[in-house]
Structures are given as structure tokens and as C-alpha cells.
Specification:
The complex is a heterodimer of chains A (about 220) and B (about 375). Chain A is an all-alpha fold. Chain A has 9 helices and no strands. Helices cover about 85% and strands about 0% of the residues of chain A. Chain B is α/β, with parallel strands linked by helices. The chains are: A mainly alpha (about 220), B alpha/beta (about 375). Bound molecules: adenosine-5'-triphosphate and magnesium ion (MG). Magnesium ion binds near residues 41 and 42 of chain B. Chain B: Its EC number is 7.6.2.9.
């Protein structure tokens, strides 16, 4: 315990910085994931056959060991934060994509027909009907993938991306368990806090009518 | 205003759902399409707003071929009520009603005003505007579904079994309400149903379909009187043929004109005397002008005999009556279904002019099923 306190007084500032780095890498990767996966997921609902193929491929990529993916990016993008973010981004895509696809596909067909019959364009249907109704499912995907990313972002350290992984890797290399703890505990806290925060966000973005309906049910 | 010209629809896979359909619908007309399941009603209707495109033939609205107009614009000019109601659960009633207006880029304050106005048409208070669909009853939701199709004041409205999911009582009151609304707003309506009572009640003309083709298209009266073939006859059902008897039109023509009455200033013993004399168990109470005041019967008299002595003190004012101008076909089923023994007939000033008894109605129904031919010869 003493060693940890001592560690904190010496490295406190640095730790804050590393935490920030860690958060930065995972959040940027998650945002990129949302930016790509949500529209792609909606688009895929228009091509159910293509959807199977795309999700199959992504599913396979997902099973690649993360180290391998990171190593794969070194010759292409060098070392640092950018390749780390890009590699993590790949992991964030699938859960968000799959949930968006399922969520949008799950919208009642009668509602879509009502929308079409009253003269909504394809875009208006997405905006006023499909996405709002799929929000809870999409958000669940975003939450899940962001929390995973915070864990995986530890690996960024491996290709010089920084973050709390630096402590863990030093700890492993130097046989100093306190370093590992000092790295791992904040990662866990970060993941929990993010999950909590995103839970709130989910509440804000879910349309009021749907929340009320679920409470009533 | 709406014209089908040799329209056919063949689905992928070769199913011929509609075959060479010709139909012309005038402005302000209420058309019901009816027929057995799978006969192509929905297909016919959805071709009008291009949710389904015809394979052959042409559909035109006010002389313009619908295939030449943009489908989105076309649909915004046609009201559409789907069977499943299809209100959006994440939108308030206000937003649901005025959604088409939003698509048409009408400003928010005007949309609100319009939603209010429409709500008042179906006697719902503005309190409902901020509620969500799941907070309404089925009947209320269906009303909102109909209002949504009226929001942009579309001249043509398509409805696919809009009242299908409702219980019979709600259904009946909504039908009545809606028919009034339609007359008032002068909409042209294409209404799909599989309920003959509904069609008879609402339609100006009924289109009877079978296997993708029109079997008969006529006014309800004409269809009842002259069914085109056995299929139509079967479809109408024997018990409805009573409604077709040409020599029986209004209630006035079938009522008995001299019901036994008493005035309010008579005593209860006089009332009992009168009942005995005519072998009845109830009397209609009228004033000097023959205006109906209510009814008394043996039971009421028996209960209140000690406290009251005059007829006017015990009269039961709640009585179901029919107007003498009412068509027989609109009342027969109601009377028989409600199980009343008799119904007083009144004129427009609520003067008692006659009475229809259950027994006389039953006679008519039997006559029409077994004896129409002889009767019409005599009549
Ligand atoms: N998308 C489709 N593809 C192929 N066949 C179809 C399609 N939609 C309908 N059909 C067929 O076309 C015929 C007419 O269908 P339609 O939905 O118009 O019937 P309907 O009269 O509305 O019946 P219901 O009273 O059951 O609603 C049916 O035999 C149906 O199976
Ligand atoms: Mg149908």
C-alpha cells in the first residue's frame, strides 16, 4: 500500500495525463465507429443480402487477435496514437453496426407503411421513424463497444500510443505488480464511469413516448 | 375524380391479384370495396397511392395519370389510414396528427392549431395533444389515425379496414361519427372492409370483388334489391334481404298507428284498468299535444303505488325511440339485437305516431326470407 501511495505522489500528474490519453484514444475510436457504423447499419437494412456478407466479414475480423491487428498497422501507419485509434475503431464497428441493423430492422412494418403511405421520402422515414425507434438498441451497441474499447485501449501502449497501458506493460516487463495495479484500476474505473455516463445519454436520446411506453408495460 | 382504366396487377411469381378492373369514382363519393379474403381489395387500394404499381392499365386522378406524378407528392395529397392504425409511438398525438403537415413544411404554430381543430371534430379535448398513443384507448387511437389522414385537407382518402380491430360498440359509434364527418367535409373515400353491415351503412356505392374482379358495383339499395348473381346473394346473406323489400321503406310504413297511451294527469288505478282492458303490461305516456313523455309498466306501478297516485309521478322518461322517417333496414337489426319488445315511433317534434313491436318485425323478417315473392305480388 505504501508503495502505491508513494507511487501516486511521484507519478500523480503523469497518471492523470495517461488517463487522459487513454480516454482520448478510446473515445475517438468509438466516435469514429459510431460515425461509420450507424449510417452503414441503416444502409445495410436496404440490402439484406449484402448485409449478411458485410457482417460476416466483420465478424471474422473481430476474431483476429488484437495484437495481430495492431502489429499489422505498424508497417502501414507507423507507431503512435493514430494507428492505435484506427485499430480500435475496427473493433468498435461491429457491435454498433449489428445493433443498428437489428434495431432498424425491428421497427414494425406497419409503421413503415404508414410513413410511406403518408408521403415520407426514404430519408424522412429514416430520420423520423426508423432511427428514433431504433435508438434504444443502437445505444446499447454504442455502450457495449465503448466499454470494450476502454479495455482494449490498454494495448495502444504496445505500439507507442500511450495511455494507461504503459503502466501495465512496464509492470509486466519489470516485474513490478504495483505498476500493473496502478494501470489496471483506473482502466476499470474509467470503463465503469463511461458505462454509467452512456446510460444517462441513452435516457436523454430515447424519445419520451417510448420511455413512457416501457414504463407502462 | 378517380378512374381505373383496365387495371391489372400481377405480382412477382405470377399471382394475378387484380384483373382488368374498371371503375370510376365521383368527387365526394364514399366507395366501399368488399369481398372475401385475398380477392384483391388491398391491392386495388394501394395502387391508388402507388404503394403498389399496376402491371397493366392506367389510374388517373382528376384526369392526370398517377404514374406521371411523383409518388411522394402524390401520397401527400391522399389521406391514408392503414388497418393496424400505425400511430408512431414516439410521437405525441399532436405530432402524429400533423406529421403530413410537417413533411409539407408547414410552420409549427399552424400545425398545432390544425391538430386542435381536428381533435375537436371527433369531440376530443386538446388535453390529448400532448399524450402518447399508448395512453389512448383503441377507439381513440383509431380516431387519431383517421384525423392524421385529414390533416392536410386531402380531398381523397384511402382506408383499409380502419375499424377492423375495434369492438362492435366502439366500431358502430365510430362509423356513425365518420360518416357524418365525411358528409360535412365532402371527401372522396375509398374504404376497404369485409363487413357487409359496415359497407351498407357507410357506402354510396359498394364494389363487390371476387378473384381480382368486380362482381357488382352499385348503391347499397340496388345491391340488396338486385344482387348480380348467387355469389353476391350469398355474400349479402339471407337475413339482410329484409332490408331490400322495396315496398317497405320507412318505419312509418310498418308501424301500427294506434298505440295504447295515457296522459300524465290520470291516476294509477286508471292506468291499471287500461292495461287490463287491452291486455298489455305497459303504456306510453303522452301529453295533450301527443308528445311522448315516457313509459310506465306494471312493475313500476307496483313498486311506487304507495307513494304516488298520478301517472306523471312514476313515468320512466328514458325510452328508446325511432323517428318515423328512419329506414327499416337501419333499425331492424338494432331492435332485434337489443332485444326490445317494442319501440315507440315519433315524428320530428317527438310526437308519438305509432309503435313497432318485436313480433311485427319478426314477421317481416320471416316474410322476406320465405315469402318475398307472394308479398310483392300482393303489394
Ligand atoms: N406482395 C405480394 N406478392 C405476391 N402476392 C401477393 C402480394 N400481396 C398480395 N398478394 C396476393 O394477391 C392476392 C390479393 O391480395 P390482397 O392483399 O389485395 O387481398 P385482400 O382482398 O386485401 O385480402 P384481405 O381481405 O385478406 O386483406 C392474394 O391472393 C395475395 O396472396
Ligand atoms: Mg387486405
Amino acid at each position: 500500500m505504501d508503495t502505491i501511495l508513494q507511487f501516486l505522489s511521484t507519478y500523480g500528474g503523469e497518471m492523470l495525463y495517461k488517463t487522459w490519453e487513454h480516454l482520448y484514444i478510446s473515445v475517438v475510436a468509438a466516435l469514429l465507429g459510431i460515425l461509420i457504423a450507424v449510417p452503414l447499419g441503416v444502409a445495410l437494412t436496404r440490402f439484406p443480402k449484402g448485409a449478411e456478407v458485410v457482417m460476416g466479414i466483420l465478424g471474422i475480423i473481430q476474431t483476429f487477435p488484437s495484437f495481430a491487428i495492431l502489429a499489422f498497422f505498424i508497417p502501414l501507419l507507423g507507431v503512435g496514437k493514430t494507428p492505435a485509434i484506427i485499430a480500435l475503431f475496427f473493433y468498435s464497428v461491429l457491435p454498433i453496426l449489428r445493433n443498428t441493423y437489428t434495431g432498424v430492422n425491428g421497427v414494425q412494418k406497419s409503421l413503415l407503411e404508414a410513413g410511406r403511405g403518408m408521403g415520407m421520402t426514404g430519408w424522412e422515414r429514416i430520420r423520423y421513424v426508423e432511427v428514433p425507434l431504433a435508438i434504444p438498441v443502437i445505444m446499447a451497441g454504442i455502450r457495449l463497444s465503448t466499454v470494450y474499447l476502454i479495455g482494449w485501449a490498454t494495448l495502444a501502449s504496445f505500439i507507442g500510443g500511450g495511455g494507461l497501458g504503459d503502466y501495465i506493460f512496464s509492470g509486466l516487463n519489470l516485474y513490478q505488480p504495483e505498476f500493473i495495479i496502478v494501470g489496471a484500476v483506473p482502466v476499470t474505473l474509467l470503463a465503469l464511469l463511461t458505462d454509467l455516463l452512456l446510460g444517462k445519454v441513452e435516457g436523454w436520446v430515447t424519445p419520451k413516448g417510448m420511455k413512457k411506453m416501457r414504463e407502462a408495460a | 375524380m378517380l378512374k381505373f382504366d383496365h387495371v391489372s396487377k400481377v405480382y412477382k411469381g405470377g399471382k394475378r391479384a387484380v384483373h382488368d378492373l374498371n371503375l370510376e369514382i365521383a368527387k365526394g363519393e364514399f366507395i366501399c370495396i368488399i369481398g372475401p379474403s385475398g380477392c384483391g381489395k388491398t391491392t386495388t387500394m394501394k395502387m391508388i397511392n402507388r404503394l403498389i404499381e399496376p402491371t397493366e392499365g392506367a389510374i388517373s386522378i382528376n384526369g392526370v395519370d398517377i404514374m406521371k406524378s411523383d409518388p411522394v407528392t402524390l401520397r401527400r395529397e391522399i389521406g391514408y389510414v392503414i388497418q393496424q392504425i400505425g400511430l408512431f409511438p414516439h410521437m405525441t398525438i399532436q405530432e402524429n396528427i400533423s406529421l403530413v403537415l410537417k413533411l409539407l413544411k408547414v410552420p409549427e404554430n399552424k400545425r398545432r392549431a390544425r391538430a386542435r381543430e381536428l381533435l375537436s371534430l371527433v369531440d376530443m379535448t386538446p388535453d390529448y395533444l400532448e399524450l402518447y398513443p399508448h395512453e389512448l384507448s383503441g377507439g381513440q387511437q383509431q380516431r387519431i389515425g383517421v384525423l392524421r389522414a385529414l390533416a392536410a385537407d386531402q380531398p381523397l382518402i384511402l382506408m383499409d379496414e380502419p375499424f377492423g380491430a375495434l369492438d362492435p360498440i366502439t366500431r358502430e359509434s365510430l362509423q356513425e361519427e365518420f360518416k357524418k364527418l365525411q358528409r360535412k367535409l365532402e371527401k372522396t373515400i375509398v374504404f376497404v372492409t369485409h363487413d357487409m353491415d359496415e359497407a351498407l351503412k357507410l357506402a354510396d356505392r359498394i364494389v363487390i370483388m371476387k378473384d381480382g374482379q368486380i362482381v357488382q358495383c352499385d348503391t347499397p339499395d340496388e345491391i340488396l334489391r338486385n344482387p348480380a348473381n348467387e355469389f353476391v346473394e350469398e355474400f349479402i346473406g339471407k337475413d339482410r334481404l329484409v332490408q331490400a323489400r322495396p315496398n317497405i321503406q320507412t318505419v312509418e310504413q310498418i308501424m301500427s298507428p294506434n298505440p295504447i297511451t295515457i296522459t300524465g294527469d290520470r291516476s294509477l288505478s286508471e292506468a291499471i284498468q287500461l292495461m287490463k282492458q287491452h291486455r298489455v303490461d305497459s303504456l306510453l305516456v303522452v301529453d295533450e299535444m301527443k308528445i311522448l313523455q315516457g313509459v310506465i309498466d306494471v312493475e313500476i306501478i307496483d313498486q311506487k303505488r304507495k307513494k304516488a297516485s298520478l301517472v306523471r309521478d312514476v313515468v320512466e322518461a328514458e325510452v328508446f325511440t325511432v323517428d318515423k322517417e328512419t329506414l327499416v333496414r337501419d333499425t331492424v337489426r338494432k331492435i332485434l339485437k337489443m332485444g326490445m319488445k317494442y319501440v315507440p315511433v315519433v315524428d320530428d317534434k317527438h310526437r308519438l305516431v305509432g309503435i313497432v313491436t318485436r313480433a311485427s318485425l319478426v314477421d317481416i323478417v320471416y316474410d322476406s326470407i320465405w315469402g318475398v315473392d307472394e308479398l310483392t305480388k300482393i303489394g
